[in-house]
Amino acid sequence: MTDHLASLAEAAPRLAQGLSVTVQLTIFGALLAFAIAVVLGLMAGSSSLWLRGPARVVIEFFRGTSLVVQLFFYFFVLPQLGVDLHPMVCGVLGLGLNYGAYGAEVVRGSINSVPAGQWEATIALSLSPAQRIRRVIFPQAWALMIPSLTNLLVHLMKGTAIVSAITLADFTFHLDQLRRVTSTMFSYAAVGLIGYFVLALVLTGIMAMLETHAKHKLGQGRSLRAILSPAPTVAAPGGGAA
Amino acid sequence: MTPLPAALDWDWESAFESLPSLLSAFLQVTLLVTVLSTALAAVLGLVIAMTLRLAPRPVAGVVRWIAHFIRMTPIVVQLLFAYYAFLELEPLTIGVLVFGIHYSTYMSEVYRAGIDSVPAGQWEATTALSMSTRRTWTAVIIPQALRATVPALGNYAVSMFKDTPFLLVIGVVEMVNAGLIYGGNNFRYIEPITLVGVIFLLASYPTSLLISRLEKRLAYRT
Fold first, then answer.
1. Would the keyword Membrane turn up in this protein's UniProt record (chain B) (predicted)?
2. Residue of A61, A81, A121, A155 lying closest to B188 (CA atoms)
């Protein structure tokens, strides 16, 4: 066991590098996925067939053809078509497009769940279509979609573990290096699975904070600052917002 | 400036040449793993859901945490771990077991929701009829709980199907790996990888449509 810990200490810088690749893929992949999800989700929820049709085709295509196939397409096929992408770009593109398509369904569903009265109110106030979405509908839909987006984010993070197949030295890649000098149990289970689990906990924690913030802005629940502040907050009499 | 690559044109010959190995990998590995792992996950998921409900609190707590842990960690790392930990087992067997166990933790949540959706009156009725615990579950609760869970289980089977390419990390020649092998031997990746994508789409999209139709039909009647 002490041998293993010594090997771990020796491998720590490389593991940290690998973890940084995994985290970068997760963050950039998630940002791209979110941008795509919002665009496709708004299009798929639109009443115009010219927006809805193409969005549906793109969503079903990227959901239906499997993440790994898409990654290999960017990595092996695009170079043969004259497009050479850095493996990191392949990874971010693959994760972003695939999970963006899943996220689009979440965005569309959440926008649909905003009560019809809210839409009617925006029309009564003669807000422009962009203002309706940006100022009224999206903030409410955003609070609704966070739990499902959290699930997708964890899926995306777990999906990054395949990228060593496209030559990226991520966390999983360095776990195999560690396994050669320690044991399967130590490298894959103790370091690997627990490492990814902690990463997942951090991601879900951040998303929980985003949800609290989004709900507070809608007048539901306490603000993030009130919850995180070290001083105990005294509940306002009558239950008003603190 | 690189000239327009010759490979830009789609070569039907390579497409037809690679197709048999892709289809045989699809039938013998991809589909086989999906079916066996779905069956395993469906049974194990129900066992987990019932353990969470019936077992003493500390046991249920431990099971809940293990399930949570499996759900929150990559299946790729789980496959690699199981592969090196049980070198005496066939990689395909490892694949079926890991996929089955991984997805059982998702399916247990579906069952839990299904069991929770059975009206309280049904439980009261079984008590009033003094049914045994066994009869209560097998004759009253599970049949009603299952009805609500079929579409969700189907959706997980489809996602498992699309996750099967992860098996290539332990050397299983499923469809994507078969495509890569063809590509490596002939230095043409366009046709096999595109075909693999097309086969995935052709298999998963109609299945998803069927499941969502089933979902609507079951929803109307209940």
1. yes
2. A81
